[in-house]
Amino acid sequence: MEISREYLNLFEEAAKAAQTAYCPYSNFHVGAALLLDDGSVITGINIENRSYGLSNCAERTALFKAISMGKKDFKAIAIATPDANYPVGPCGACRQVISEFMDKKAVVLFGSEKQNIVYTTVEEIYPFDSLHELGKNN
Ligand code: THU
């Protein structure tokens, strides 16, 4: 499937964001970019901590940043992992958080580079959504 220019641009925004990841412990840079219905983009990076378990993934940084700005109509999220040589999907915790704020039909893209982007949806990466009956987007 051909990925649209809009989504390729979103992936590029995620890749650009990855350059500022704070990841001195893993040295694994991750960038995320959220596309809003109005066309604007909000990015996030992974932010680690010397108490390793406190590290925050790029996807959650982007979502928490957006939600704290009062934004909520998300069309897509792109995730770039330039230090890998294959597309790295969101971790389980991020899938849960994505499912809280994004429609199940929303687009999810992830890749380590433009040539290997996986194009999918929230419902595909998070079927049997945990506690969906309690959520707002069920
Ligand atoms: N990481 C993300 O930011 N997103 C993912 O989807 C996978 C993992 C981060 C967490 C940690 O800072 C580093 O990548 C290595 O796991």
Task: Give me some keywords for this one.
APOBEC/CMP_deaminase_Zn-bd, 138 residues, alpha+beta, five-stranded mixed sheet, 4 helices, EC 3.5.4.5, metal-binding, 5 strands, single chain, Cytidine Deaminase, domain 2, 28% helix, Cyt_deam_tetra, binds tetrahydrodeoxyuridine
- CATH-scheme architecture: 3-Layer(aba) Sandwich
CATH homologous superfamily? Cytidine Deaminase, domain 2
Strand order of the largest sheet: 2-1-3-4-5
Q: Compute the CA-based radius of gyration.
A: 14 Å
Spatial gap, N to C terminus: 28 Å
The averaged pLDDT comes out at 96
Low-confidence segments, given as residue ranges, are none
The helix count comes to 4
Which range does the strand content fall in? Answer: 15-25%
Counted up, domains total: 1
Instruction: Tell me the helix content.
Output: 25-40%
CATH class: Alpha Beta
The strand count comes to 5
The backbone outline, from C-alpha atoms, is: globular
Tell me about the largest β-sheet: 5 strands, mixed
Could you tell me the CATH topology label.
Answer: Cytidine Deaminase, domain 2
Helix/sheet category? alpha+beta
Give every kind of bound small molecule, once each.
tetrahydrodeoxyuridine
Element string (H = helix, E = strand)? HEEHEHEEH
Organism: Treponema phagedenis
Protein name: Cytidine deaminase
Keywords: Hydrolase, Metal-binding, Zinc
Enzyme class: hydrolase
